[in-house]
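User: I'm preparing a small set of examples for a lab meeting where we compare how different chains pack in three dimensions. I only have the primary sequence for this one, and I'd like the structure in token form so I can line it up with the others. Please keep the answer compact; I'll paste it straight into my notes.
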Amino acid sequence: MKSKRKLLVRLIAFLAVIAIAAWMFVIGRGHTIYFDNKTLEADGQTYEAPYQIQVLVDGESVGKLKEGDRGMTTTMGQDFEMILAVTKEKGDKKAGAKVSLKLPYNMDGIILNLPALLGGASEDVYRSEFIPTPVVEEEEEEVPSSDEFEMPMGDE
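Assistant: Understood. Below is the structure token output for the 156-residue chain.
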């Protein structure tokens, strides 16, 4: 009886540790999020970039993006909230928008096109995966070390 009870306690403890590990795996997932303020054409529609978008995450400004700019932030977990302060034209008043998104678990770097997001585009239009391009190093050209320009020295 004692060994069955001991085995049951160990099994419950093991399952609890596995459950906690799985939960931490999901909520502890980090993402790098890139914000684009660029005009986007998709599905026959054009999403024009405004003059400036200020991005606030957790009450902190992570970027003031002029037209054509990209900003970034990092976050933990699958739920993401941000506030966008949009200035359509230079000198206009800012209009605010609160945005809540579910981040895909399988993407490390996520690019959000803010004009398309604000314009009501579908998720597959405003969101894409950031894939860094490999840097190709050019081989240095060897400089010949000939002595054709040496000056004669002394008694030669």
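A couple of notes for your slides: The helical segments are 2-27, 114-118, 123-126. The CA atoms of residues 56 and 83 lie 5 Å apart.

User: Perfect, thanks.
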